[in-house]
Amino acid sequence: MDHEKRIVIKELNALLRGCEMGVSGYDKFARDAAEPVLKGKFESYKAEYAENANSIAQRITALGGKPKYNTGMAGVISDVSYAVRGSDGHEAPELLRSAHYGETKSIDATERALSAPGLDDESREVLRRQHRGARTRQEELIDLIRDFDLG
């Protein structure tokens, strides 16, 4: 396997970890949200991340790599931070802000991956879909934050 392909696989695996964190995060948010509209929105976002993870894993396999399913140290730190905040941090505005922060991190990571050397067209398209989805979710979350802050 050539050097550029290994770099692409490494970037895709980093995004796969990010998608796994998205699935885990939105699962917690849906479980802890009191408002039915937020539960539904978070479940929908969780499903999008699961679909993205599947697409990325398929692409890694097609390139001859092995998908690495785990959230790594960042996931552990995120879980601990969420648990420490306890129920005070699980009100709608806090959940929405946490979700927005996660989408911002997803956008940043995807933009970094899109600049990886040797990125083939199919991998680029998988990354662009992830990027578009994260942007859309981020915009929706901004609207929800406004609604809950004003409501």
From TrEMBL:
InterPro entries: DUF2383, Ferritin-like, Ferritin-like_SF. Residues 8-115 form the DUF2383 domain. This is DUF2383 domain-containing protein.
